[in-house]
Amino acid sequence: xxxxxxxLINYHENGYLRLKNQLNPYIVSEIxxxxxxxxxxxxxxxxxxxxxxxxxxxxxxxxxxxxxxxKEFCLKSIIxxxxxxxxxxxxxxxxxxxxxxxxxxxxxxxxxxxxMPYFPIEGSKxxxxxxxxxxxxxxxxxxxxxxxxxxxxKLFQPKAxxxxxxxxxxxxxxxxxxxxxxxxxxxxxxETVPLSVGDIMFFSGYLLHASTENSSHDDRIAYSxxxxxxxxxxxxxxxxxxxxxxxxxxxxxxxxxxxYPPLQLN
Length: 266
Hints:
four-stranded antiparallel beta sheet, 14 strands
């Protein structure tokens, strides 16, 4: 495991860190196989997105709860140790996971957002691990970031990523509207980051990010895992993803439980 002091500085300043060549081809192919299996099952957390009657994307979440291979990967791979270092937290909790397939030639971009407002939790230490299962660039829906926006101290109002699927979100007065970044790109430091199979992208739950449309001839498949650190507790807040609310938890409760497995790391 190699994370340099400069990597840590870059992550905390920019809000994201790309680590190259972390996963071997066999692991990537196994994850891809398991994700396709879960999409075919179409569970409670699965959605189909359409634009003008044409299917453009599929998404599914909470996969680790029912898939033994993905659960073991989330809990026993090198990824939790990276998260521990990046969040400066000796304890990390597996919070949730999800996958998103953008179909070829779908030409539907994912809008700018930060992740934290979608989740019924509060705290500073939350991190997304984003794993591309095919090479991605600006043509087939890679990630782009507003560099340093995790330091703004803002929660942006959640909204559905695409028309024709997903959830709607209540307005939370503590959230602010997402700025119109596409119309005013000169006001922001935007980085579009190409990734190769085997790479892992880590980014803060407070960082504004989006993804480009998929105008390629291949489906783009990505797997996301989210981990929390030692200052995160449950918060039943307005405007988050209702499916992620947990009636077994009360505000301020530490997440440590089978629902959010804790990992103690040195």
